[in-house]
Design a protein that fits this description.
The structure holds two protein chains of two kinds. By secondary structure, chain A is α/β, with parallel strands linked by helices. Helix content of chain A is 29%, strand content 21%. In chain A, the strands form three sheets. In chain A, strands 6-7-8-3-9-10-12-11 form an eight-stranded mixed beta sheet. Chain A has a four-stranded antiparallel beta sheet with strand order 2-1-4-5. In chain A, helix 5 crosses helix 6. By secondary structure, chain B is an all-alpha fold. Chain B has one domain: MetI-like (MetI-like fold). Chain B is globular, with a radius of gyration of 25 Å. The chains are: A alpha/beta, B mainly alpha. At the A-B interface, helix 1, helix 5, helix 7 and helix 8 of A face helix 1, helix 2 and helix 10 of B. The structure holds adenosine-5'-diphosphate, iron/sulfur cluster and magnesium ion. The site of magnesium ion has 3 residues of chain A, from helix 3.
């Protein structure tokens, strides 16, 4: 594995620094979507609120940090879904709620007929073998006082995966699988580089042979060339062990190669979700379009030749007091009155494409009238429309339906 | 990218097998840096030598006593005048009695101080270990568990600090000693007194440790390796004591060295108040208390134990400060 990694890097030796995506494309074919794969993990309406307490002796709850506010997605068996959004959008919180590092406030996480969201801690322990996590920071995710061997052996010991006398052998196998020298099991993390440390974290996650891995920005802390190596490794592991990945990233360049399906998250909500083609070539949400304009090689296609970047001004607003209506409206270049009055529903607008915007459209082709007004039973400004009645089936569901909202006919229909 | 990144270099270095990478990286390890920083600091090095010397003294005294080379208990009234004061100048200093003799009993001052150091340091170490143990456990649990557990431990700390320690200690010494003797079955007299003093110092001394450890744990808790061990299904116990505790040795070491001298002087203060090991068994505290009576008639007899306690307090404190600076160069406390 280590040798193949080197060829990857050497093969890309060029004058100009290539993107992760370019590096990756030269090594492996991009992961393809299997539309018929059954879902292994289904997240419905997941909410994760952190209480805000007053200071003082009696610490009353004064509000909620709505870090994740109702997200739904289905993770296909052996597939991978990318979860993308700026820092502070609630991606890590979502990942941690799904892996039950946090107890979700509401919603369900269905895995093999059980709801991880409500399961007790005792029942949770065996399920830890099935759902694992790779952490973002390779410098803080490994205990500096433990050897690599004991870090990778810990899950084996805790779950009695192998007999005691075979632990070392298994640890060495795992180190080899992730491309590390198996003889280095008695070294400490500080003797390894960032990329190698991340491989150690991957070996730890693999030790329990999970069916699902949530990878929380596994390459954000690494150099571009190393990012490619680690993503290649994950892709190899996914194919070899049939692991489903929820791959969290803060930009769209990193996940493009690895994830045939991508969810874009903004301030606790999924604003657009779809297959690779829908997101990269046919994005309909202004936020996705802004994120895409920051990806060098996508820039040209999406902006129709205009190379300038769509600047998002300001930061993500506080999730304690999110903007009313559409949460993106404070930064949205095309926001109108209805956006502050009503939250746009996450509408399916294609076979595998959903978007949450009142004015969904390709860049520069956003409609002038809100497409959702009819569904919500309001007029174009978002005021109640006595003549219309709100559509009843706007509840977010994981996965995709066979019928969707046709943007041309402005009604729900079958293709 | 044209030039292989350092990352790739290290990959290659590791894959080739030899320890080229290892030697290079190990020199950067935080431990090595701390040792280097500590060595550079002259004052810390001197205090380390002095502290080691004290431990050697403390360990050697019982051996010398057993071998009959020093005798801290033998009275010799021949060395005293009719008022009970040492004969000769400078408190009876002579070839046989390097630091003079004790007024009143004529025992050898050096032997008593030497042996007394053993008792004083033993009491201080025992009390420190108890305080550290309670403080570290309470601090880890408090910081890592948070919530109501943290609140309860926090209140316990406040309560302990608000307790009028010295007063209660004196008022309760009869009850406390009875408890030690009857319930714990420690022989009456000095053994019971020693246990009482150690227990009291330990039970009241843990709060500072708990606070320091709790603070450290609060920041360690945010490190991802704690979540990672939760992720693999580690028990609370494992997370507290296998994951978090090994990362606390630096503050523990520093606190230990700073707490020791405080307990050496606390033993002396308690001795003065009449609680603790009493003569003929020597401690620095009871020697000093006894010597106070002779502060003007036999000044050197008073001077030596006072000097010894001062040296212990200063050298341990300097060592603790030096360790803290070396281990935590940013000095965030
Ligand atoms: N344990 C927590 N307690 C309170 N607020 C939190 C906690 N974890 C995250 N948050 C808040 O939730 C929001 C989302 O954080 P996070 O999930 O880390 O975002 P991302 O991973 O997308 O950068 C942030 O505003 C953050 O401050
Ligand atoms: S709903 Fe309105 S504010 Fe939100 S993204 Fe669409 S246009 Fe912008
Ligand atoms: Mg994050």
């Amino acid at each position: 594995m280590a040798e193949s990694d080197q060829t990857v890097t050497e093969g890309t030796a060029a004058e100009e620094v290539p993107t992760v995506d370019e590096v990756l494309s030269q090594a492996h074919a991009a992961s393809e979507l299997d539309p018929d794969a059954p879902a292994v993990l289904t997240v419905s309406n997941l909410r994760m609120y952190f209480p805000v307490r007053s200071t003082g002796i009696i610490r009353r709850k004064v509000g909620d940090i709505q870090a994740v506010d109702g997200i739904s997605l289905a993770l296909p068996k052996g597939g991978s879904v990318g979860l993308v959004g700026e820092s502070g959008c609630g991606k890590s919180t979502a990942g941690r709620a799904i892996t039950r590092l946090y107890q979700p406030t509401a919603g369900s996480i269905e895995f093999e007929g059980r709801d991880l969201a409500t399961i007790s801690n005792r029942e949770l322990k065996p399920l830890r073998r099935e759902v694992q996590m790779i952490f973002q920071d390779p410098y803080s995710s490994l205990n500096p006082r433990h050897t690599v061997g004991s870090i990778v052996a810990a899950p084996l010991r805790i779950h009695n995966v192998v007999p005691k006398n075979q632990t070392l052998k298994r640890v060495q196998e795992l180190l080899e699988v992730v491309g590390l020298n198996p003889e280095h099991y008695n070294r400490y993390p500080n003797e390894f580089s960032g990329g190698q440390r991340q491989r150690i974290g991957i070996a730890r996650a693999l030790a329990l042979q999970p069916k699902v891995i949530v990878a929380d920005e596994p390459v954000s802390a690494l150099d571009v060339s190393i990012q490619a190596q680690v993503i290649n490794l994950l892709q190899d592991l996914q194919r070899e062990f049939d692991i489903a990945f929820l791959f969290i990233a803060h930009d769209l360049a990193v996940v493009r190669h690895f994830c045939p399906e991508i969810a874009v998250m903004y301030l606790g909500k999924i604003v657009e979700i779809g297959d690779r083609d829908s997101i990269y070539n046919n994005a309909h949400h202004p936020y996705t379009q802004a994120l895409l304009s920051a990806v060098p090689d996508v820039k040209q296609a999406i902006t129709g030749g205009r190379r300038e970047r769509i600047q998002l001004t300001g930061d993500v607003p506080s999730p304690i007091d999110p903007p009313s209506g559409c949460r993106f409206r404070t930064r949205c270049p095309i926001a109108q009155e209805i956006c502050s009055r009503h939250e746009p529903p996450l509408l399916q607008i294609g076979r595998r494409h959903k978007v949450a915007c009142h004015f969904p459209g390709r860049l520069g082709e956003h409609p002038h009238a809100p497409l959702t007004a009819g569904l919500l039973g309001v007029d174009a400004e978002g005021r109640p429309d006595p003549g219309a009645s709100p559509s009843s089936d706007l509840v977010e569901q994981p996965g995709y339906a066979d019928t969707w909202f046709d943007l041309d006919k402005k009604s729900i229909g079958r293709a | 990218m044209t030039a292989p990144s350092s990352e790739l270099d290290s990959h290659l270095a590791v894959d080739r097998g030899p320890d080229t990478l290892l030697t290079e990286v190990v020199s950067k390890s935080p431990m090595r840096l701390a040792v280097a920083r500590f060595r550079k600091d002259k004052l810390s090095m001197v205090s380390l030598v002095v502290v080691v010397l004290f431990f050697l003294l403390a360990i050697s005294a019982p051996i010398l006593v057993a071998a009959d080379l020093i005798d801290p208990l033998k009275n010799d009234t021949d060395l005293l005048d009719e008022y009970g004061l040492p004969l000769g100048s400078f408190g009876g200093i002579s070839g046989d009695h390097w630091l003079g003799v004790e007024p009143g009993g004529g025992r050898d001052a050096l032997a008593r101080l030497w042996y007394g150091t053993t008792f004083s340091l033993s009491i201080a170490i025992a009390a420190t270990i108890i305080a550290m143990f309670i403080g570290v456990v309470a601090g880890i649990v408090s910081g890592a568990a948070g919530g109501w557990v943290d609140a309860i431990i926090g209140r316990a700390i406040d309560l302990t600090l608000a307790f009028p320690q010295t007063l209660m200690l004196l008022a309760l010494s009869a009850v406390g000693l009875a408890f030690v003797e009857e319930i714990l079955g420690v022989p009456r007299g000095n053994p019971a007194a020693a246990v009482y003093v150690v227990g009291v110092l330990g039970l009241f001394g843990w709060t500072a440790v708990a606070r320091i450890v709790r603070g450290q744990v609060l920041s360690l808790r945010e490190r991802e390796f704690v979540q990672a061990s939760q992720m693999i299904g580690a028990s609370r116990f494992r997370i507290y004591f296998r994951e978090i505790l090994p990362n606390l040795w630096a503050p523990i070491l520093v606190t230990f060295t700073l707490m020791m001298p405080a307990f050496v002087s606390a033993e002396a203060a308690l001795s003065f108040l009449g609680v603790g090991i009493s003569a003929p068994t020597p401690t620095l505290g009871n020697i000093l208390t006894d010597a106070l009576r002779y502060a003007d008639s036999a000044f050197l007899y008073f001077f030596f134990p006072a000097l010894l306690i001062a040296i212990i307090v200063v050298s341990f404190n300097l060592l603790g400060d030096g360790l803290r600076d070396a281990l935590d160069p940013k000095g965030h406390r």
